[in-house]
Amino acid sequence: MRLAGPLRAVAVLLLVGFTWVLATAILGGDSSSVVKHFFSVTNEEPTAEPKPRRYKCGLSAPCPQKHLAFRLVSGAANVIGPKICLEDKILVSSVKNNVGRGLNIALVNDVTDLLKYLRPLHEGTLVFVASFDDPATKLNDEARRLFEELGSSVVKELTFRDSWVFVGAKGIENKSPFEQRMKNSKNSNKYEGWPESLEMDGCIPLRAPLES
């Protein structure tokens, strides 16, 4: 049965009124707040979460002024090479194809011949070391003594296939705070025959000869 015009209008009004009462009961509050609820339109777009800031060499916070940001990663077993980063510049890595088994050393430049480069170091020179595979076998007494003079606390105890990362300096007065060693031990090795890789980062205060 079809409703005539006036009756149809009355039915529509009754339906609207019923909806209004129901909405007021559900949402609570006075009628003006319900009106605002139904007729308010939000144009706010969902805000994307801010990306975490990236600092030099992947540090979690920036270094203070007159400090150098660094990150050292020792090699993993004899498969993954080490990495040395200084001030967001990769000095040593497998990608750069300049890593080798033993000790990978950067004197802000890449070097290979150990004693040749350690003996004539100038005062204030920073030395970055990251081991790969085996750092100790070819370390003679003189090399170990030179690393001690650079601030190493553990170089005397380094043994076959230990993991080692170290930052020292020529003329350092105390032992370096930037050094880690993971001993090669069958009971705790992560890899078969090798301990886990070490990772160390931080901020090194500049000495006068390095300040620009």
UniProtKB/TrEMBL annotation:
Signal peptide: 1-23
Database matches in InterPro entries: FAM3, ILEI/PANDER_dom, ILEI_FAM3C
Domain of life: Eukaryota
Entry's Gene Ontology molecular function annotations: carbohydrate binding
The ILEI/PANDER domain, residue ranges: 109-171
Keywords in alphabetical order: Disulfide bond, Lectin, Secreted, Signal
Pfam name, any one: ILEI
CDD domains for the chain: ILEI_FAM3C (cd13940)
Cellular compartments annotated: Secreted
Major subcellular site: secreted
A Gene Ontology term for the protein's cellular component: extracellular region
Family: Belongs to the FAM3 family.
Protein name, entry field: ILEI/PANDER domain-containing protein
Lineage of origin: Eukaryota, Metazoa, Chordata, Craniata, Vertebrata
Gene: FAM3A
